[in-house]
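seq as requested:
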Amino acid sequence: QVQLVESGGGSVQSGGSLRLSCAAFGDSYSSYCMGWFRQAPGKEREGVAAIDSDGSTSYADSVKGRFTISQDNAKNTLYLQMNSLKPEDTAMYYCAAVFSPFCYANTIVAVTTPDRTFGYWGQGTQVTVSS
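C-alpha cells:
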C-alpha cells in the first residue's frame, strides 16, 4: 500500500510560480508511473504531467514550457514546478501513482480514465491564480 500526500498549493497572481510536492509513504516499487492531474469546478479531471521509472516525462500541451515534473527518489517525493501561471491553471491538483512495468509517461499523461488507470491518489491541493 502507498499513501500520497500533496502540499504546496496556494493563491498567486497571474505570472507567478508555485511548486507542488507529493510525498509517497509505504511500499516502494521499481516500475511505476506518477502523474499530476487537475480538476477545475465543472470540468473533468485532466492530466498535466507524468514521469515514469525510466525518468521520461510528458506534459499536456497547455502547460508545456511552463511546468516541470521531477522526482527525488531519495525522498520518495514528486514535484511539479509551475511557472508563468495563468488564471486557467486554477484547479485542484492531485498526484497519482500506478505501479506497473508497462506504463509510459508519454501515453499515461493523456489517459482518458485516470481514475481507473492510477491506483493511488493524493487528497489534492488547491491552486488559485488571479488575474
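Helices lie at 105-108, 114-117.
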